Phosphoribosylformylglycinamidine synthase subunit PurS (Longispora fulva), 156 residues
Amino acid sequence: MARVVVDVMLKPEILDPQGQAVANALPRLGVTEVASVRIGKRIELEFTGEPDLEKAREIADKLLANTVIESFDVRVEK
Amino acid sequence: MARVVVDVMLKPEILDPQGQAVANALPRLGVTEVASVRIGKRIELEFTGEPDLEKAREIADKLLANTVIESFDVRVEK
């Protein structure tokens, strides 16, 4: 079994209210050294044989990310 | 600015209906070599100074993950 990880994040120019909510909560926890928080998705695909990055990219593009507002990154995990 | 990434995934023994829905959709796309799909969160914390993994772990534990059903992993991104 080989694992391919797809990271899906909102594009930098898209507002992330969920991340903003976490960032706003941090000072109340006494954390002042975090300037910003962005929240996205991490998807783990378990391939039965060899990991196929090209196939993973196709899955990400069609099923996992909305490429109008999100960008994704695909990698094999050791 | 230094980026710390927190990956939050459901524990292996917890059912992941969202990942299961994606896995069920794959054969319809002609993908048969993916055995399972798990979907979690990726959170990017931008530190103003040096990245502080201990602080990031505290934030993950208190704000980002529900440790009853989720596990998390914290790392500095180059």
